[in-house]
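As a next step, we paired sequence with structure tokens, yielding the entry below.
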Amino acid sequence: MKNNNTIAAYHIQSRKNNILELNTRKLYHWNIPKRLRVNPIQKGDIVLVPTARGTRSVVVMDVFREEFEETQRRYRKVIKVLERAPEKE
């Protein structure tokens, strides 16, 4: 299993009756800290992340490995996992 270190996610605008309204204009990226890589983040998880307007919850759309030495990009770190996506049977 490869060690994924980056997520791509959409911001959650609102939650009403377990229905999420997402801001799908732009896909944002965050780094997964090593302490959260033990129990891997998956697509569909809801995580808490820092933004310019404080901390917000986002829905993970993609999880992948990015070599920061090659891309020279710096992302803010995921704070914690709020909800896990339901497991497929």
